[in-house]
Each structure stands twice: as C-alpha cells, then as structure tokens.
Specification:
The complex is a heterodimer of chains A (258) and B (248). By secondary structure, chain A is mostly helical. Chain A is 84% helix and 0% strand. Chain A has one domain. Chain A is built from nine helices and no strands. The radius of gyration of chain A is 21 Å and the shape is elongated. In chain B, helix 6 links the parallel strand 7 and strand 8. In chain B, helix 4 crosses helix 5. Classes of the chains: A mainly alpha (258), B alpha/beta (248). The structure holds adenosine-5'-triphosphate and magnesium ion (MG). The site of magnesium ion has 4 residues of chain B, from helix 1.
Chain lengths: 258, 248
C-alpha cells in the first residue's frame, strides 16, 4: 500500500535523522576525551583536505568565471554592469563557494568515508577494533569529524580567493572590464561578514559530510553491494542536507552586520 | 569461567540459537563443533558481547555480558583475544602494525622491543619477514595466521579462535594446533575454539561441545565424543553425507 510505504519512509527518515544527530554528538564529545589520535587526524587532514584542493580550485575558478560572465550581461541590460564585481564578490563568498565546496566534499569525502568504514564493517574489522577495547566512534568517526571541521572552512576560504580570481580573469579577459573597476567594486561592497557567514556555514557542511559518511558506513550490511548502497546513500543524504540547510542558514544568519 | 544459559538469537525469521547451554571452564580448551551455518560464529559474538541475545545470558566470571553498558564492556573485552573467521586484519595497516595493535603497554616500549615482539609473534605462526607487507598482499592462510599472531600478542586471558586451521595446509594446520596447545598450557589461559577439523578437535580439546539445531546436543572429552552413541554426532564426526542430519 502506498500509505504504508510512506509511513515506513517517514519512520526511517526520523530514525536516521535521530541516529545521525546522536553520532554527531558522540563523535564531538570524544574530541575532548584524551588521547586524541593526532596521527589519524593528520592523515585525514591530508587525504580529505589537502587532496581536495585541486577539485575545489577547478570548481571555484569556473564558478567565479561563469558568475562574472552572466552577471555582467544581465547587469548590462540595466546599464549597471559596473556593479558586476559587487554582485560576484557577495554571491561567491556568502553562498556559492560554501555550498558548492560542501557538495564537492559530499561527493568526494562522504563517499570515501562510507566506503572505507563500510568495508571495515563487512570484513569484521570494526568488530575486531572492539575486541581491542577500542570505541569505533572515537577511532573512526572523531578523527574524520575533526579533520573536516578544520578543512571545510579552510577550503572555503581557498575557494573564495580562487573564485574571485576567476571572476577577475573573466572580467578583464573576456568582457574587457577595466581591471581596477571589478576589484574596487568588489571590495567596496564586500563585508567581512559575507566571508565569515559563508565560513560558518561551511563548518556545518563539513560536519555533515563527516558524520553522514561515517553513519552510513557504520550501518553497512551485506558485502560489496551493501558498501555500494551505503556510499550512494551517504552522498545523496549529505548533499540534500547541505542544500536544504543552506536555505535555513541564510535565513537565520543576518544578511549584514552593518 | 564462562557460563552460557538459555541463549536464544534469531535474525528476522531465522532462529539460529534456540537455547544454548554451555560451561567453558577456566584454564581449559573447549572446542565447539557443528555444521556450517549452525550458528557457531554467532555464539562466539555473544560470548564477547558483540551481539545481544534475544533471551538467555552469557556470564564471564559472573559478569553478564549483555547487561553491561558500552563503556563497561570495553573494560571486560580487554581480557579477550579473538581470531575472527575471516581474519579481520586492519587493511590500512602493515602486518607488523596489526600484530602490535593490541599489545598492552605498547606506548612505553622502544621501537626495537616492539619489532622484536612482532617478529616473535609471527614466528610462532610460522611466518617471518612479512611485517612490512600489507594484508592485501597475503594469501588467505597467511592472513589467518597473522590474525592468530595478533590475538596472542595481546596476551589475553581468554582466547577465542573461529576456525583457526581452515584454509591451511595439513602441516601448517598442525603447527597451529600445537601453538594453541602451547598457549593454552598456561593454566591462566582459557581457550575456545571453533573447528570443522575433527583431528584438530581431538588433539587440542579438554572438552568438545556439539552445536546442532540451535542447541548444544552433546559435550564430552575427545574420548567420550569419539565413543558417542548419538547418531547425529556420529554422522558429524565421521563426516558422512547420509544419516539423521538432513542435507537437502
Ligand atoms: N549479522 C547477521 N544477520 C543476519 N543473519 C545472520 C547474521 N550473522 C549470522 N547470520 C545467520 O546465522 C546463521 C549462523 O551463522 P554463523 O556464521 O554463526 O554460522 P557458522 O556456524 O559459523 O557457520 P560456518 O561454519 O560456515 O562458519 C546463518 O544462517 C546466518 O545466515
Ligand atoms: Mg562461522
């Protein structure tokens, strides 16, 4: 019956949300439980953070570029193309870079977290950890959460910088704006808060990516197919949470502090 | 001593354990035999607290494993060393790191002392010069032996082996038998072994328990099991395809 499955879907949804919140809390509390495994954290900082830089670079430079191109032509119709830089700077730092970087991390990192942890679950490595008296949340989830809490904002700042650079390149080379105009407009209207509010969101997106990837990894059942299913689910759920919560963040965080 | 009473466990509509009663005496080697899929590995996971029973209990020196809260369980689990059926080596670590993983007091040891311990543990299972390899580079039998080395290096009071000799050649299987006998000779060590190999079972066991249809249907010394009159047990230990055990 359709009603039946709808009921089950919403029940599953509520249960999964509860479990994800719980896991986030448990992983977070264990940050303050000595000893913190710095070796694992640094390996995740490198593998999931530093190694995400090329893809964040590409994403940002093209986003900045295309946004500049489209904004320029749209504003030109109003005769307001001199404001291209203002629009691009605010849109990139407040909205586009944090969200797109979050989605990139959802695709790249929550997939790898759920596949890695899921494989460990189905090959009983997580059970084996337990027999060594090691809490899987502390050992597997906390280092990943810490790594992304650090890397997501840094990658976002990196993306902001590269995105603005891409915008400037297009402004100068493609639509032939005066190079100083784009920049002066951009920095005139850009507030520190635009950047900070984007970074605040990115911290939450990073947490989402780490916890959702780990959650579906730990819940994996049944062999290679189960690992595949866990990975797909993790990417979809993390992406949806990022997209939906972004709207609410934008509503909750003041638009400007001035 | 480990006391199992009335242990029941079902997965969805599949009843696996239907009232297991078994005493595993301290300092002894107890072997569990039973058909493939009869629930031996599930029984093991209940003993170490990895699975929660639907009914019944596992008491380890009087402590009810299923009543413990997670944090308390981590304390009790330190006494166990477990060799999983599939090895369950950590595949992101080298063989050496795997073996040294649970060694108590490792933080206070020098690198040389740790390496010596790794080499010693690996030589006990007939392996040498592989501590730098990754688990993916090992054969199935080698993985199994590294898993045994890892469990023993931890120096646990209770050693659990899930099919330690499956997948090994007959000579290596006997090396592992002798190793189990050797570590279990220490009166402080309790061993529990799952095996399909009757030669191993007879050789290493103080007590053999037969799991069938979700219950322990017979226990006894090797000599007693050999002389059993129970048709099901006879069929199993003689490895006959025909008899009271349905194979369809
Ligand atoms: N996590 C699980 N979820 C669902 N069913 C399970 C699970 N673990 C085991 N089972 C089922 O329990 C039964 C017993 O499995 P178990 O692994 O204990 O068998 P076994 O006696 O160890 O067999 P083998 O000698 O082949 O290793 C099987 O029918 C199996 O399908
Ligand atoms: Mg088994």
């Amino acid at each position: 019956m359709p009603g039946d499955s709808l009921g089950r879907i919403s029940l599953n949804f509520v249960r999964a949300s509860g479990e994800i919140f719980l896991l986030a809390g448990r992983a977070f509390l264990r940050i303050f439980q000595r000893p913190l495994n710095l070796k694992l954290i640094s390996s995740h900082l490198y593998l999931d953070g530093i190694k995400s830089m090329p893809v964040i670079f590409l994403m940002s430079v093209f986003t900045g570029g295309v946004l500049t191109l489209q904004s320029f032509y749209a504003l030109q119709r109003l005769g307001a193309e001199i404001f291209t830089g203002s629009l691009v700077g605010v849109s990139l730092t407040k909205e586009l870079i944090p969200v797109l970087a979050g989605l990139m991390l959802a695709g790249r990192v929550s997939a790898s977290y759920s596949a890695e942890i899921g494989t460990m679950v189905v090959t009983e490595q997580v059970d084996a950890l337990f027999t060594f008296g090691i809490d899987p949340v502390k050992y597997l989830v906390t280092p990943r959460v810490v790594a992304l809490l650090i890397m997501a904002p840094l990658l976002t700042l990196f993306g902001d910088f590269v995105g603005i650079l891409g915008g400037k390149l297009v402004a100068v080379l493609v639509v032939h704006q005066n190079p100083n105009l784009f920049e002066s407009q951009l920095f005139q209207s850009l507030e520190l808060w635009d950047i900070v509010s984007g970074v605040i969101k990115s911290v939450f997106f990073g947490l989402t990516v780490a916890v959702v990837g780990s959650h579906f990894g730990l819940k994996t059942e049944g062999g290679a197919r189960g690992v595949g299913r866990a990975t797909t689910t993790a990417v979809v759920v993390a992406s949806v949470i990022i997209l939906v919560s972004d709207f609410f963040w934008s509503k909750v965080l003041p638009f400007s502090l001035r | 001593m480990i006391k199992i009473r009335g242990l029941h466990k079902s997965f969805a509509a599949n009843p696996v354990l239907r009232g297991v009663d078994l005493d595993i005496l301290a300092g002894q080697t107890t072997t569990v035999i039973g058909g493939s899929g009869s629930g031996k590995s599930v029984l093991f996971k209940h003993i170490i607290g990895l699975m929660k029973p639907d009914a019944g209990s596992v008491l380890v020196d009087g402590v009810n494993m299923s009543a413990l809260r997670e944090r308390e369980l981590y304390g009790v689990i330190a006494r166990f060393g477990m060799v999983f059926q599939g090895g369950a080596l950590f595949d992101s670590m080298t063989v050496g790191e795997n073996v040294a993983f649970g060694v108590p007091g490792r933080a206070g040891m020098t690198a040389a002392a740790i390496q010596e311990l790794i080499d010693h543990s690996l030589s006990q299972v007939g392996l040498s010069g592989i501590s730098q390899l990754m688990p993916a580079e090992l054969s199935g039998g080698m993985k199994k032996r590294v898993a045994i080395a890892r469990a023993i290096a931890k120096r646990p009071a209770i050693l659990m082996f899930d099919e330690p000799t499956t997948g090994l050649d007959p000579i290596m299987a006997d090396v592992i038998n002798d190793l189990i006998i050797k570590v279990s000779a220490d009166p402080g060590i309790t061993s529990v072994v799952i095996t399909h190999n009757m030669a191993s079972a007879y050789k290493i066991s103080d007590k053999i328990a037969v799991l069938y249809a979700g219950r322990i249907i017979e226990t006894g010394s090797a000599a007693e099991i050999r002389a059993t009159t129970n048709g099901i047990v006879r069929q199993f230990i003689e490895g006959r395809a025909t008899g009271p055990i349905p194979t369809g």
